[in-house]
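Page 42, continued from yesterday. The earlier attempt failed because a stray header line got pasted into the input along with the sequence. Redoing it now with the clean sequence only.
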Amino acid sequence: MQVHILCLILRQHWLYHNLMKKEDTTGLSLLLFLFLNFFKVALFIIGGGLVMIPMIEDIFVRQSKKLKSKDILDMLALVQILPGLVAVNSAIFIGHKLAGFKGAVISVIGVILPSIIIITVIAAVFVNLDIQNPHILKAFSCVRACVVATFFGIIARLKREVLKDCWDYMAIGLGLICLMAGVSQIALILLSIPVGWLLVLCHKGENQK
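This time it went through. Structure tokens are written below.
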């Protein structure tokens, strides 16, 4: 009986590793890849949805090479415009792009499950948790510093895809000036849409010449 159980365990282990090695773009291996990676990202990242972006870029662009830097930029633009949580919108975008509707559903489950588990454990075990504890506050201050560093890292890696000519630098400069002048972010995003269209038309006109 024990030998039979051991054989079953070894067989499942062999099947799992062979499944993960296959380059299946629509099957179970890709869905499992999406679930495990979004679960890992949501489990270890502290500080909100935007903090996930550097880790998502590292996993899907640099390590697995399933996405390109341009895809991450498109995702950033969409998740900022669409309503909802940044983490969930990012999971939907990447999951749907790689594995369609099933990929989007599995990615969302993977990204929200760690929060459900952690909150449940905290509510059940740490009933009298003091969030003003100085040790906890110091730990989170260090986390915030690391978050800033990761943002600078991803900006440095993605700037080649964003800053291609003088128009891009001008757009960023005008955006910063508007933000410092007190213009709302919603107005700035809405204004950037027609400006982007005009820049595209200008580029097309220059290329045709």
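Notes: Residues 25-162 form one domain.
Reminder to self: strip header lines before submitting.
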